[in-house]
Predict the structure.
Amino acid sequence: MDLSIIGSGYVGTTVAACFADLGHDVTAIDVDQSVVETLNAGEAPIEEPRLPELIAEHAGDSLRATTDYDAIRKTDATFLALPTPSNKDGSIDLQFMKAGAEGVGEALSPKDGYHTVIVKSTVVPGTTEDVLAPIIEETADRSQGDQLGIAMNPEFLREGTAVADFLNPDKLVFGSDHPQAIDDLHGVFAPLLERHDAPVVETGAREAEMIKYANNAFLASKVSLINDLGNICKELGVDAYEVADAIGLDDRISAKFLRSGLGWGGSCWPKDISAITHVAKQHDYDPPILEAAVAVNDLQPRRFLRLMDQHVTVDDEPVAVLGLSFKPGTDDIRNARSIEVIDGLQSRNAEVVAYDPVASANMLEIFPDIEYADSPADALEGAVAALIVTEWDEISGLDEEFDAMAEPVVIDGRRAIDRREGLVYEGLTW
Ligand code: UDX
């Protein structure tokens, strides 16, 4: 099929490249000319494993990019994969999705024949049917039915494994109140289902929207719960990882997402939990567990720094921050725990020396006045404390490099290394 993907960010670029790899003919549409040029040059505009290879293979053939929305007319179906950031009050900001829906509708208006529009972005329940569909129908001058199909198809891509997650999904969710649009999604995903068997959930648009929020809220709450229990463990001298290994044997719990420590960041969980909480409050329901999950997550960087304070005074002293990205495998620093940690160090007047294999350039925009080391060893040289914030392999592999520290204080927020002779070592929850 001929597909168009509106938005070439983390989700849109992965979706475009993977659909091209599945045999579709894909047009990526983005307002950013430099992103369009990067894609057409066969390069990836974002850091994501396997994406460069897919784009290099298909660019100029079954994958192309443009800024021109009119290209939609030559395609059968269009995915909306635009940002849905948070407003200051925590509510979802739909400005980009509304503008995208309007652009799609206007581009469709002159088209004869049927077209499917699929919402890929994470939007609060009711958005597809009550906000975006009316905009598309009005600007495309057609109603859902024999000329237009509108559906919601959430993604569950993790940064660092997005291509693998797209090509090996644990489920596909097709949400629409119109059976034809559900059929359209089966057509789009047929090549994937031929390669990889996965359950297909057919449901309403609202349910599909809520499935995405529930998936993220559940995972974030699971991490916050193990962190809550991990904090108790730390106070009682118990190793939370030993506890997690044991409870993870209960298949109702599973071993996944039980790594206690500094907690969660990223572009999705914080904004999604705040958006769904905001919607709940608009309906006079304050979700206590979701609010508690955020509260525990907010605690972790503070507890982490207090552990450091117990062993060393960092006023006017160099402190190594090892790891900046919100998790290994990505250069993304959105809502990264390193931001709160560096803030806390600066409020202690420490001289921060940060290291990350790929994310330093991004962090420079937030903290231009700290030092960025080219290697973990350089960051550790003369430091009075080493704070492990992201569990990159090269940080987990450190050993003799700690000998160059002025004080051998290591505070580990990610169970990245084991305690060892010669180090004053503290684990955040162990
Ligand atoms: C998440 C969801 O997993 C994905 O399905 C959704 O589409 C987007 O949001 P992502 O944000 O890329 O994906 O990261 P993920 O791997 O889920 O980790 C989220 C955060 O939780 C990271 O900051 C990570 O460090 C933290 N985490 C994860 C833990 O602290 N402990 C764990 O055991 C797992």
